Amino acid sequence: MKNKSNFLLLSTLLGGLLFNFLFWKERLALNLLIYSVYLLIITFTNPEVIKSKKLKIYALAHQLAGILVVINNSDLTLVTYYISLLLFIGIAHNQQIRTVFTAMLAGFLQMVTVPFNAIKNLADVRIGNFNLKPFFKLLKYILIPLVIVTVFTCLYSAASNVFAHYVELALNSIADSLGDIINFLFKDLDLPQVAFFCFGLILTSGILLSFFDKSMQNAEFKCKEQLSRIRRHLNQKSAWFEFIQIFTGGLLHKKLALKTEYIIGLISFGSLNLLLLSLNAIDITTLWFGYKPSGNFSSELHQGTNSLIFSIVMAMAVIIYFFRGNLNFYSKSKTLRFLAFAWMIQNCILIISVFIRDGYYIEFHGLTHKRIGVLVFAILCIIGLATVYVKVAKQKTLFYLFKTNGNIWFALLLVFSTVNWDVLIVKYNLNHTDSVSIDPDYLISLSEKTLPLLDKNRNKISKSAGNESETRLAIYANPKDVLINKLDQRIGFFKERYEKVSWLSWNLQDWNTAEYFGLNK
Fold it and tell me: What keywords are annotated for this sequence in UniProt (predicted)?
């Protein structure tokens, strides 16, 4: 215990110093990867951490996320990095966790319980015969009364303005005295950087120091992936059962409750299949073949796509509801399963319609992040329907859905982070200016990694500016000049920013952009 506590506290201190060195007045890039390497080295050096296969997989995933930040340096790669870090933290300290959602919550819990973890580890520190446990025992006698006194001081201040005035004078006097002492002792110290170091110290301790409460891991361990039939005795009534009985009367006591639910499911899925069949028939005849845009084409596609995506999510929720329990084991449920599978197939056809709608949108209006997001969400819906099918066919639990979909979503997040989306959007739109009505303002607003492409295609941007609606650019005397000036301004901002950072902020995209503009030495 002594060696473990000393090792972790020393590693935390070094991590705070490293954090200050890597990130102070720097952009997030190569420094994130270096910091992650340090965290992984400390974690795998710690003898108390079990080096399981699961931990190694999430460690590699986190390192991949760090590498992708250096390569693509986009908002998506940063989000992927933070999520992978939370997952790595959660798994490192709770290796029985099986879902990414619980791992993220456990990782977050690690971060918010930093004071408890630090005090517990400091209390275990031994330097020869010296230890800090008596100090923290004494601190306990001071801290708890101090909190109580502070709470009642606030209450009494709210009740009496005169009392509040004297409390304010006392606090101001104490603050001034402390300020004078700090300025006298640390007059040459950069206080903002000290605060930044403290933040890095807290962050590193939250990652490395394990929280002693394993309740989340233990709670998830009880969850099953395979459904089992629950035989409820009438005498065993939960609080939820009693609440439902208020609205259902004696219906819950009837032996035919399962058959009733089965009949309701048959009617529901039969009606929904007919309803969706009519919608799919309309889409196939009017959208899939020979579609010609007319009227408010953009608004029609946009609203239709949002409604269809929401309906697909609701469809999965309805299936999960009906096949949540004993109905899976009902002897006459084959017909209900057939109708549920038919509705899943029809929802897949509906997703194809979403792809086609979004494809038309991209064909006539170009690529944007939102349109790519619709494609990604449609892919996730297909995966969701596939796992729901397995749940119904193999009698799996809701926990199985969370576990499987969570792992797939995290894997896809890593895959999607490998793509440089901003560059892809600009390349596609500029290569299809003859057929696509592009938005030059949107293209110029994308990240700095697109500046070389935009600079090479100034003529296309100028031409597209002439196609803008008069109402949109009526305030400008010459829309083309405004767009080009905006592009030149962004290039100037990049050059100024690039000169201010060190090698710690290096990333491939900035380097390529700087190489194009001749900034690399």
Answer: Membrane, Transmembrane, Transmembrane helix
As beta bridge partners, residue 130 has: 127
Average pLDDT, integer, range 75-102: 92
Three-class SS state of 291: coil
Q: Rounded to a whole number, what is the largest CA-CA distance in the chain? A: 86
Residue 351 in contact with residue 378, Cβ under 8 Å?
Answer: yes
Look up residue 288 and give its two tokens.
Answer: 């899939």
The half-sphere exposure of 131 on its side-chain side, counting CA atoms within 13 A, is 16
Residue 130: phi, psi to the nearest 5?
-90, 135
CA distance 431 to 344: 38
DSSP string, 209-241: SPPS--HHHHHHHT--SB-------TT---HHH
Cβ atoms of residues 465 and 443 within 8 Å:
no
Query: Number of C-alpha atoms within 13 angstroms, CB side, residue 261?
Result: 19
418-436 tens-digit pLDDT: 999 999 999 999 998 887 7
Q: pLDDT tens for residues 120-152?
A: 666 565 666 666 666 666 666 676 788 788 888
**pTM (predicted TM-score):** 0.81
> What average pLDDT does the chain have?
82
Contacts of 509 (CB under 8 A, 6+ apart): 71, 72, 73, 420, 447, 448, 449
Q: Do residues 19 and 200 lie in contact, with contact meaning Cβ atoms separated by under 8 Å?
A: yes
Cα 400 to Cα 98, 218, 320, 388, 395, distances in angstroms = 10, 17, 12, 10, 10
DSSP 8-state assignment for residue 329: G
pLDDT tens per residue, range 433-448: 887 778 888 999 999 9
What tens digit of pLDDT does each residue of 307-320 get?
A: 777 788 888 888 88
Give the residue-averaged pLDDT of 372-394. Answer: 90
Closest among 113, 88, 59, 93 to 217, alpha carbons compared: 93
Phi, psi of 88 (to 5 degrees): -60, -45
- Shortest CA distance to 328 belongs to which of 378, 398, 384? 398
Whether the predicted pLDDT of 232 surpasses 70: no
Structure tokens at 393: 């066919």
Q: Say what the alpha-carbon torsion angle 459, 462, 467, 472 is, to the nearest 10 degrees.
A: 160
**How many whole angstroms separate alpha carbon 496 and alpha carbon 449?**
15
| 295 Rama sector, left if φ>0, alpha if ψ -120 to 50, beta otherwise | left
What is the percentage of the chain residues whose pLDDT exceeds 70? Answer: 79
Instruction: Give the pLDDT score at 237.
Output: 56
